[in-house]
Specification:
Strand content of chain A: under 5%
Distance between the termini of chain B: 63 Å
Order of helices and strands of chain A: HHHH
Low-confidence stretches of chain B: 1-6, 96-100, 170-181
Helix content of chain A: 55-70%
Mean pLDDT of chain B: 80
Structural class of chain B: mainly alpha
Largest interface: A-B, 46 and 59 residues
Helix content of chain B: 55-70%
Largest sheet of chain A: none
Number of strands of chain B: 0
Oligomer: heterodimer
Strand content of chain B: under 5%
Mean pLDDT of chain A: 62
Chain lengths: 112, 181
């Protein structure tokens, strides 16, 4: 289905070695994953340092264009959901048990 | 009178009280269970007060508290590894969502997906995406390089979008390329 997977991987390795110390396997593997994703038009989370038109991804066409348009929405969507969860708890009043705990420990410390 | 004799730690204590809402939010997002989250916060505050001398005044108290909470979470995580986080029951009882039913369903899916992330990716996403900390601060809390932090956030977003099926082409690509790790 993806006959040039090996080529993509090797190209990604060279790209990785060009910007990071040689032997940084984790970085290369991550690069490769991104490459795979990019090829599949799945999700575009590319570091800013990666050039917009990467030489390792010759793909152009409606699928990748759609993916590019979608990416900010996915990021925004995740960000909104995350903050909704976080902010809803953060907006709640501090439970009494914590204030009691702080007061109790303060007294103990004061006695020292 | 009281202000004149206020001990040096009083300001820290006030800051600590002010930090509690964010600590709870961090803990709930991290472990997915409000009861355990509050236990974690309680433990964090107790440890912080007992070790207050090791805190350097003027440095980032929030980051210090997040670090203590995170350490507590991971030591507990190792103990309770086999337990499954209670995602649906407790949290939905704690949160009062004003959203419509559809939004609410979506919200539950998101929380479920968040708990399916590896913990290092989840905490990275929360610290950067919700708590408002910088990459540098988050990296210090998690004791990793800034680049690692960025990579974790990126992978967390990517994995979440898969889990939430935010992209229609996800399932097809997933079948072709299983993760290599």
């Amino acid at each position: 289905l993806f006959p040039d997977k090996g080529t993509i991987f090797i190209a990604a390795c060279f790209e990785a070695l060009a910007v990071s110390p040689a032997g940084n396997i984790e970085f290369i593997v991550e690069k490769r994953r991104r490459c795979d994703r990019r090829r599949a038009g799945e999700f575009l989370m590319i570091d800013k340092k990666t050039p917009g038109s990467s030489p390792t991804t010759p793909e152009t066409g409606p699928a990748s264009e759609q993916a590019k348009k979608r990416t900010p929405n996915v990021k925004d969507h995740i960000g909104r959901q995350l903050r909704a969860l976080y902010d809803e708890v953060a907006a709640q009043p501090v439970p009494d048990r914590f204030m009691e705990l702080l007061n109790r420990l303060d007294v103990k410390n004061g006695d020292e | 009178m009281i202000q004149d004799t206020m001990p040096a730690g009083a300001q820290i204590r006030r800051d600590m009280v002010a930090a509690i809402p964010r600590l709870r939010a961090f803990a709930v997002s991290l472990c997915g269970n409000p009861d355990r989250a509050d236990d974690l916060v309680q433990e964090t505050l107790a440890k912080a007060l007992l070790n207050i001398k090791s805190f350097t005044e003027g440095t980032n108290l929030m980051a210090w508290l997040f670090t203590i909470l995170r350490n507590g979470y991971y030591s507990e995580f190792r103990k309770r590894r086999r337990e499954v986080a209670d995602i649906d029951g407790n949290l939905s009882g704690m949160l009062v969502s004003k959203a419509s039913q559809d939004d609410h369903m979506e919200f539950l899916d998101f929380r479920e997906a968040l708990q399916k992330l590896p913990p290092d990716q989840r905490e990275a996403l929360i610290l950067i995406g919700a708590s408002g900390l910088s990459y540098e601060e988050a990296a210090e809390i998690c004791k990793c390089a800034v680049g690692t932090m960025k990579s974790r956030v990126s992978r967390a977003r990517s994995r979440l979008s898969e889990l939430l099926q935010l992209d229609p082409s996800t399932s097809a690509s997933h079948a072709t390329f299983p993760p290599s790790d």
